[in-house]
Amino acid sequence: MHAFPTIIPGRLFIDGEWRTGATGATTEVFNPATEIAIGTIEQASPEDVADGFAAAERGLAVWRNTDAWTRSATIRRVADILREWAPEASRLMTDEQGKPVREAEAEWLATADQFDWYADEARRIYGRTVDGHSTANRIIVRREPVGVVAAFAAWNFPALLPARKIAPALAAGCSVILRPTEEAPFSSLLIVRACELAGVPAGVITALTGPASRISEQLINSGIVRKLSLTGSGAVGRTLLHLAADNLVAVSMELGGHAPVLVFEDADVEAAARACVASKFRNTGQVCASPSRFIVQDTVAQRFTEAFIAATRELQLGDGHDPETTVGPLSNRRQIAQTEALVADAVSAGATVALGGQRDPRFEHGYFFEPTVLVNVPPHSKILSDEPFAPVAPIVTFDSFEQAIEIANSTVFGLASYVWTTNLSTAFLASERIEAGMVGVNTMAVATAEAPFGGVKESGFGREGGSEGILDYTVAKATILTL
Ligand SMILES: O=CCCCC(=O)O
C-alpha cells in the first residue's frame, strides 16, 4: 500500500529530491469552478533547470544499463500505485482542471494503463539480423534508448498526456525531464511521486515547473536533451520545432485536431447522436480528439439533430465535484474568451444557435459555458476550421460520399475522425479516404493504450500508445559483422 500524499508536492523534482526553486518564486494554481487558488508551484530558475538536465544525464547512464525485466517491473509498480491512488487523485484533478470526478477517475485508470502497457513493451524491444552483401556479413540491428527526453504536455489531460510520454520513454531506457503545465500541475507531479515510490532511480525522472518558454528553450539548447515530445498547440509546436531544428533534437508532436464525424443514412442515427454528445462534451470539449464537426447525410440530418439536441439537454453543467455534474467548467479564462469568439463568428456568418451559446448566467464564479449546438453553419465559419477546444457542436450536412470526404478533409488537421455506418464498404472506404491518424467506426473511443495515437498534416507526427509508441524513444543501431 502506498498512502496518497497528504501534501501535494508542488515542488521541483531533481536528482531524486523534492526541492524548492533557487529563487523561491512560485505561481498560484486555481480551481476553474471557483476561481479560488488551490496551491502553488515552484518556478524553476535557470540554475534549477541546469541541475535538472545534469541529473537526467546521470540518470540516463543508470537506466539505459538497467535490464528490461527490472525496468518493466518498476514501470508496473507505477501503474499499481496510480490505481491505488485513483479515487483521491481524481478529486485533486477535478480541483485543478475542472472535469467531473468520474471523468478524472477514468483518466487516472487510462494513465495507469499506459504504464501497464509499456511495462510489457519494455520487454519486447525487438532487434533483427539481416544477411549482408557477402555471405560473411551479418548485420545486427538493436534499438537503443534515444537519450534524455524533454516532455511537455497540455493541461486538458494533466495525467494521461505526461504518462503517454513518460511510460514509453522509461520502457525504452531513457531518462525524462517533465515540464508540467502551470494550469494543472499537481496530477503530473503525482505521477512523478509514483515513479519515485516505485523505485525509478534518481535522475531518471525530473520535474521542472515554471515558465514554459524559458524552460523549454534552456532544455532544448542544453546539448543534453536528445528528444522532445510535445502535446500542445500548433503555435507552440512551431516554436519548439525551430529550437529543435537548431539543435538537431528529435521530435514527436501531437498538435491538436478538428475531428470530423461522418454520419451516413444507414447508421443507427439515434445511437450515433447519443454517442456523439457524450464524446463531444467530455472534458467540456477540451480534447484534441474531440468530435468537433458533425457532418450528417441530408436525408437523416433532422433526425440526428433532434436526437443530438435532446441528449445535450440532458447534460448537467456544474462543479465537477457534484455527482450530478456531467459537464464541468472550461479550464481557464482564455477558453471562455475563445469559445465566445467562435460562437459570435459563426452567428455573424449566418449560423443558428439551436441550444446554449453563452456563458451560463447561473454561475457567479467559474468558467461555465453552456453546451452549445449550432446548425445551418456556413462553410467559412471559424468553428469549422479553427481547433475549437470548446463545448460547441456545429452540425452540417452532405448529400454524397464524395462531398462527405471533401468536408472531412477540408481542414489543416488530421488527428481523430469518426464514421457512423452499417455498410462495411462505406466504413472501409471512408476510413481509407479520411486524412487522419485515427478513425473510429461506430465508436468514439479511439484513445486507448494499445492503439497508436497521433496525427497527420498539421496535427503533428510521431505516435503515442501501441507498440509504435516506444519506437519514438529508440534509435536503431546497426552493427555490421564480417565473420
Ligand atoms: O487531448 C488529447 C488527448 C485525448 C485523450 C482521450 O481522448 O482520452
From TrEMBL:
Keywords: Oxidoreductase. InterPro entries: Ald_DH/histidinol_DH, Ald_DH_C, Ald_DH_N, Aldehyde_DH_dom, Aldehyde_DH_Superfamily. SUPFAM superfamilies: ALDH-like. It holds the Pfam family Aldedh. Residues 18-478 form the Aldehyde dehydrogenase domain. GO terms for biological process: gamma-aminobutyric acid catabolic process. Gene3D superfamilies: Aldehyde Dehydrogenase, Chain A, domain 1, Aldehyde Dehydrogenase, Chain A, domain 2. PANTHER family: SUCCINATE-SEMIALDEHYDE DEHYDROGENASE, MITOCHONDRIAL. Belongs to the aldehyde dehydrogenase family. One of its GO terms (molecular function) is succinate-semialdehyde dehydrogenase (NAD+) activity. The keyword Cell inner membrane does not apply. This is Succinate-semialdehyde dehydrogenase/glutarate-semialdehyde dehydrogenase.
